[in-house]
Amino acid sequence: MCALILSRSCQIRIERLHCACLFIMLTIKNLTKAHAGRTLFHSTEMTINWGERVALVGPNGAGKSTLFRMILGEDTPDEGSINIDEYAVVGYLPQEAGEPKEETILDIALGITPEMEKAIHTMKMCEIQNKTDSPEYADALDTFNAVNGYQLEPKAKKILKGLSFKETDFHRPAREMSGGWVMRAYLAKLLVLEPDLLMLDEPTNHLDLLSLIWLQKYLKNYPGAILMISHDRDFMDELMENVYDIDNESLVEYRGNYSQFLEQKDIRFDQLTAAYRNQQKEVERIQEFIDRFRSINSKAGQVQSRIKQLEKMKLIPKPKSMRKVFKFNFPQPQRSTQKVIELEKVSQSYGKHQVYSDLDLLVERGERMVLVGPNGAGKSTLLKILAGVLPIDGGKRIVGPTTRIGYFSQARSENLNPDNTVLEEIMKSNGEIREEEARSILGSFLFRRLDVEKRVSVLSGGEKSRLSLVKFLVDPPNLLLMDEPTTHLDLLSVEALVQALKHFEGTLVFISHDVHFIRSLAEKTLHVNKGTVTPYAGGYDYYLEKSGLLDDDKGGITAE
Question: 210, 551 in Cβ contact below 8 A?
Answer without folding.
Answer: no
